[in-house]
Amino acid sequence: MTPPTAQPTARLTIAQCAALESLLIDLERHTRASATLADEHRAAISTGDAAAIARCIAAQQESAAQLNNLDAQRAAFLRSLGLRSTGAGGVTLSQLAAMAPSPRADALTAAAARIRELLADAAQRRESVRLASLSLMAHMQGIVRQITRNLSETKTYAPPNRLIPAGATAGNLDFTT
Q: What's the whole-model pTM score?
């Protein structure tokens, strides 16, 4: 196991601060959009609008790709500074922002804190979508079971591992003649 690296103490140049600021702005914008998409997806599930759900899923996949691209840019930026981006000793956005010269460090640190809060909020909204999806799926399974039972003449189709006693059959064949 490699020992964790020490906290970075170097200062960022003006150009590096500008690059970090641009990255933070993009991360904040795309994270907000991701949270909004989760809300739209939840609303589409609530109304049962299959077309809207499909649009939301496509938009969320695009948003996730954009966020993954921004995370790759973050990792590349850290590597260009000779810093680790993940794992033990990895540098966080807040730590990176603190490496900026004093007047810019406060604004960059605040932006990093906003992103952290937005990420937590977006994750909570996506969890809400997941739970709504599970609820809708359970509802649909119940409807399918109910329809299956009502359409079965023998009434033998029931929830798994349960048999509904059969009533009179719909037709009889006489094998005696």
A: 0.71
